[in-house]
Amino acid sequence: MGTHLVTGTAGFIGFHYAARLLRAGEDVVGFDSVNDYYSVSLKRDRLAELCRIAAEPDAGAYHFVEADLADQGAVDKVFAEHRFERVVHLAAQAGVRYSVTHPRTYVQSNLVGFINILEGCRHAAVPHLTYASSSSVYGSNRSLPFSVSDNVDHPLSLYAASKKANELMAHTYSHLYGLPTTGLRFFTVYGPWGRPDMALFLFTEAILAGRPIDVFNHGQMSRDFTYIDDIIEGVYRTSQRIATASEGWSGENPDPATSAAPYRVYNIGNNRPVSLERFIGVIEEKLGRKAVRNLLPMQPGDVPETYADIDALEQAVGFRPETSIEVGVGRFIDWYRGYYGR
Fold first, then answer.
1. Which positions ≥6 away from 203 have C-beta within 8 Å?
2. Is 190 a catalytic residue?
3. What is the pLDDT of residues 175-224, one digit of tens each?
4. What is the chain's mean pLDDT, rounded?
5. Packing angle between helix 276-287 and helix 199-209, nearest 10 degrees?
6. Among candidates 143, 147, 98, which has minimal Cα distance to 269?
7. How far is CA 200 from CA 16, 267, 277, in A?
8. At residue 342, does pLDDT exceed 90?
């Protein structure tokens, strides 16, 4: 393989994906603004770890560009200076709740940034663009498990709307310019080097500090928690499988997950929803401490349950996530204690 452009390499998923490529001997150009949405020091440490991995024998080369995706000139420059065999777009302004209070941030990062990536891929004739979508696009949908063939026209947050918009924008470029695109709807990703604004990080930090944990919707929630290694395997396999037009696609009965253009959308979830109470229980078990629960109502933009139908992913690339919550949480806590010395 040639060089890969991976956006968001200072972020959780982008960092892990770049590390996977480097260890396989693939060359990576990373792109990230290293913004202060959460700990900049954690992001810098991820970048330092990528440099360490790149220095290992037989590892691929790593070149990092610190810039904003909304900066068209910076994005165009990267495409002008490198020839990319694959582009994996994992950068975005994350967070459902943050989008309620900072909507314009999502327009710049998730919409303007994405059109810059699409234009770069189009003009450089990139063979395949793989990009991060989100389970949040299912919004008001209550038909479980969520299928990529379901309607997703009722988002509950601007974050979700921006991810649905990314899928629509990608389809337009697949249709107009023949750019192969694959969107991946991630379901509650967790693991080592994870985001400090996510529940596992927040709960672990609070329990070790002896503080109560905030449990929303009075604990009546469940999530399709998906371990980071499973996510990375799914991203890698779909990136290697270039999206093609679906021969059986019909505009009279359109399947939103496929198209007459080279376009695909897949779910990547564990396919085994876990109740919030069980999730907390596993954290308590791995920490050897009990949590004090502060029961609160549902937050704006949130949903009570997520559950991924991953049949399409398995049929396409032969992969099904399999890491249990007990194994995944245990690995996160081992990393957390080692990283923070607690």
1. 213, 280, 283, 291
2. no
3. 999 999 999 999 999 999 999 999 999 999 999 999 999 998 888 899 99
4. 95
5. 50
6. 147
7. 17, 21, 12
8. no
CA–CA dist 202, 336 (Å, integer): 11
Neighbour-count burial of 73, counting CB atoms closer than 10 A to its CB (0-12 exposed, 13-18 middle, 19+ buried) = exposed
Residue type for 186, please? F
Dihedral of CA 281/286/291/293: which sign? negative
- List the structure tokens of 179: 């750019």
User: Using CA atoms, how far apart are residues 45 and 66, in angstroms rounded to an integer?
Assistant: 14
Please compute Rg for the chain using Cα positions.
Answer: 19
- Residue reference for tokens 């770049």: 18
What pLDDT does residue 303 have? 81
Q: Give the H/E segment covering residue 247.
A: none
Q: Name the CA dihedral angle for 123, 126, 130, 136, rounded to a multiple of 10 degrees.
A: 10
Which residue type sits at 11?
Answer: G
In tens, the pLDDT along 66-115 reads 999 999 999 999 999 999 999 999 999 988 888 888 999 999 999 999 99
CA dihedral 320, 135, 304, 293 (to 10 degrees): 80
Q: Which amino acid is at 52?
A: R
Q: How confident is the model at residue 1 (pLDDT cuts 50, 70, 90)?
A: low
Q: What is the spatial distance between Cα 285 and Cα 215, in angstroms, rounded to a whole number?
A: 18
The C-alpha torsion from 285 through 290 and 294 to 295, rounded to 10°, is: 50
User: What gap in Å lies between CA 42 and CA 51, rounded to an integer?
Assistant: 14
Q: Which amino acid is at 187?
A: F
In the chain, the amino acid numbered 283 is I
Write down the catalytic residue from 159, 173, 227, 263.
Answer: 159
Residue 2 has pLDDT above 90, yes or no: no
